[in-house]
DNA sequence: GTTGACTTTTACGTAAACGTAAACTAAAAT
DNA sequence: ATTTTAGTTTACGTTTACGTAAAAGTCAAC
């Protein structure tokens, strides 16, 4: 398995190294270390970072993202744990679904506003 | 036309009065005032607040929301202005569309993870 | 084997988005 | 008429999510 350095990841995702270290500081990523203390990131760490950045784009706080990651990531072997995780997942899924619907409504509204503006522009061009 | 007081709006949207005043401070809402200085909010102000809060849920900054509002709100009569507004609107529409697609992908992933968890739970129940 | 790029920790700084408290005024209720 | 209750401004405080700088160690290249 090969590793990424922090600056490689930073470049790939166009974020600062400080940002990546901050996510670790908050417990969202846990890269291994070389003997001298340098961070090494696996494909899994990379995937986690990708997830975090996507979550951020959706407006989730790091705290929320942390919650999601740790629930889905940990191997929840016990039955109770599994049930709890499923319930949580269903809840989050519902939230995402609502968000999609909300966004689609916004899209509709924007489209109708745009149509209105285009009509106005046409009328202006008709006069001229 | 009847008005809302600041605390009425705050209650309706479950935000603090400070939050509403802050949005005004940043130029996002402009309620009229009574002679004594009290803020009075029209239906339009209410709609604007609703828009702001929706934008926030989507992870837009107040600055971005401000930009959108002022572009769509102002009566852009001039032809150049109209064209500019339409271009901006198309850009924002594209962003929203991408966001929706992004979210739908996330939804898919969550559903597949959930399906996997459910399967595991079934197996556990089969044993017991 | 030394220069230069990279990394580490520590720590202070900062912008955004409010929270909170004080000091005061106006409105509503009793 | 006088308590509550609600509203106003001013201003300092707080959290989140990093930016930035310093001081020191390390890796890669020439």
UniProtKB/TrEMBL annotation, chains A, B:
It comes from the Bacteria. Residues 79-127 form a coiled coil. Residues 3-71 form the HTH merR-type domain. InterPro entries: DNA-bd_dom_put_sf, MerR-type_HTH_dom, MerR_fam. CDD domains: HTH_GnyR. The keyword DNA-binding applies. Keywords: Coiled coil, DNA-binding. Pfam families: MerR_1. One of its GO terms (molecular function) is DNA binding. SUPFAM superfamilies: Putative DNA-binding domain. The keyword Repressor does not apply. Transmembrane segments: none annotated. This is Zn(II)-responsive regulator of zntA. It comes from Anoxybacillus thermarum.
